[in-house]
Amino acid sequence: MAGGAAKSDQRRLTEVASLEGDRALLGRSSTAERVADILRDRITEGYFPPGARLSEESIGGALGVSRNTLREAFRLLTHERLLVHELNRGVFVRVVTVEDLEDIYRVRMLVECAAVRGLGPGPYDAAATDTIAAIAAAVEAGEAASEDREWQALSTANIRFHQAVVALAGSPRTDELMRGVLAELRLVFHVMADPRRFHAPYLTRNRQIIESLQAGDTAEAERLLLSYLEDSRTQLSGAYAQRIAEG
């Protein structure tokens, strides 16, 4: 147990230290919103697992920001349900509940399917064409990660796929909303016993969706996406509930 805890602590220190590379993203006028963007992205990429304590001293030092700026960023992410503040203990990455998971998928079905539906049949304008290229790139990244057996990278590519689907709506507000929702979903992925078994079958379905979009058949793409989300919700909810029950 002690050896496992030591390895976990060392991994956590390595993950926090890697934030130093993000310092350049803050620019001269660093703001809490930019810090929150960086930490949200790191959560989306799987660097900070559910239940992890976020150290003000180490993260603030890595990013080169003041404690007040970092605390405001923590507050923003707490409002997004990604973090939780525990009195006299600190700030922790939130553990998502089964009820949260059901609601996440409810939002996803509403937003993602509407984004595809609103695109209309091809031919597409330049903005939509660029976004479809980003969706295709995410599919290819997922396929490459699967071939390399990089399951965390596969999970990240899947999140990027859905972020790009949402971007079809051409709405910055929708993009912002779904960045938080999909980061919250990533917290669920951490507790899956076998991420390869969960994510790999959806690669084929991602490929089918992008091929329908590239062919201009948005009705088929929406049908495939809705079926995808319904199956994913059923599978993930059952597995997640079991994992939570087992502790």
Write structural notes for this entry.
The chain is mainly alpha-helical. The chain folds into two domains: 2-93, Orthogonal Bundle (Arc Repressor Mutant, subunit A), CATH 1.10.10; 98-246, Four Helix Bundle (Hemerythrin (Met), subunit A), CATH 1.20.120. The chain contains ten helices and three strands; from the N terminus they run H-H-E-H-H-E-E-H-H-H-H-H-H. It has helices at 2-17, 32-44, 56-63, 67-79, 98-119, 126-147, 151-167, 172-189, 195-214, 218-246; strands at 53-54, 83-86, 90-93. It has a three-stranded antiparallel beta sheet with strand order 1-3-2. Strand 2 (83-86) and strand 3 (90-93) form a beta hairpin. Helix 6 (126-147) packs antiparallel against helix 9 (195-214). The mean pLDDT is 86.
